[in-house]
Amino acid sequence: MTPITEVEGRRIPLSNLEKVIHPEDGFTKGELLHYYATAAGALLPHLRDRPVSFLRYPDGPHGQVFFSKNVPPGTPEWVTTADVPRSDGPSRMVMVQDLPSLMWAANLVTEFHTHQWLAGAPGEADRLVFDLDPGPPAGLEECCEVALWLRDRLAGDGIEAYPKTSGSKGLHLLAAVRGASSERTSAYAKALAVEAEAAMPGLVLHRMTRSLRPGKVFVDWSQNAAKKTTATPYTVRARPTAAVSAPVSWEEVASGAPERLTLRAPDVLARLARDGDLMAALLDPARSTPLPD
User: Fold this and answer.
1) Positive or negative torsion for Cα 96, 100, 104, 109
2) CB within 8 A of 123, min separation 6: which ones?
3) How many CA atoms lie within 13 A of 186 on its CB side?
């Protein structure tokens, strides 16, 4: 029998709690749900009012892994959804607005991915994002060097950047912006990626060309496009370990130490208890910055 729990008055079936989802850590689905319930205070503000794409991995990262952008079959009627414009016509997507909808979605075993805009203003960017992806033998240390350059370059335009781990092998930089379309934000991000490549030609690449990737850090600016999504802060990734895309401090980035920038679910809960959300300022509208002309 599938156990049912009540969360803020909503009855939610929870299945296969003993199943190991992240095999290298022996991390079970029950532990995953506990992580999301405990991290909800920090995670939910980064999800709220944003259409969510699910990268589902119900049998772990070595099983079937697939994106779910439309509202999944069987979604409870109390889960908030939103119409999202697409080139082939509007579709409906889930919005994770509260703890019950977070726990319902977590029971599907999913990474959470969000657009850089809110449901009420699709295509009007309120986030700027860079995904720093190293091509071996480059790694996290090289990503940190590029992140520090981008931080200083953005600061020159009055934009404050906040770093987080990708939950894989790289880093993400996020900033709060306003007054620009996704198209314009994407063009600005591309221009900075090109500048970074010009400043560090032996280290940075702004193009996705696979043959050019070894030993360099690809500064992926394309996730600013209106149709693209990025892993949400505090989501667990579909990896053999329970790795989390977690906010880090600039001091940790400056250290360049992979062991300080590889965070798993238990680490993140301890950090939240100690430090709170290191990306809380990203959520403050007063901290958002217009893009330069």
Assistant:
1) positive
2) 85, 117, 181, 182, 183, 226
3) 16
Segment (H or E) for 205: strand 204-205
Closest CA to 142 of 190, 196, 192, 188: 196
Give the separation between CA 236 and CA 60, rounded to whole angstroms.
Answer: 12
Amino acid at 157: D
Which is it for strands 10-13 and 4-7: parallel, antiparallel or unpaired?
antiparallel
CA distance linking residue 43 with residue 265, whole number of Å: 13
Q: DSSP string spanning 79-147?
A: S-EEEE--TT--EEEEE--SHHHHHHHHHT-EEEEE-SS-TTSTTEEEEEEEEEEEPTT--HHHHHHHH
Give dist(CA 109, CA 238) in Å, integer: 9
User: Which residues of the chain fall short of a pLDDT of 70?
Assistant: 1
Q: Assess whether the previous peptide bond of 137 is cis (omega < 30° from 0).
A: yes
- Report the C-alpha gap between 13 and 33 in whole angstroms: 12
Query: Residue 53 in contact with residue 14, Cβ under 8 Å?
Result: no
- Calpha distance 107→125 (Å, rounded): 30
Q: What is the pLDDT of residue 82?
A: 95
Q: Which pLDDT value is given to residue 1?
A: 64
d(CA 129, CA 233): 12
**pLDDT tens column, 164-189:** 999 989 999 999 999 999 999 999 99
User: Residue 212 has what pLDDT?
Assistant: 85
Residue of 85, 65, 81 whose CA lies nearest to 73: 81
Q: What is the pLDDT of residue 88?
A: 74
The answer to whether residues 233 and 137 touch, using CB atoms and an 8 Å cutoff, is: no
Reduce the DSSP state of residue 24 to 3 states and report it: coil
Q: Which whole-number Å values give the CA distances from 129 to 61, 145, 263, in the listed order?
A: 25, 17, 20
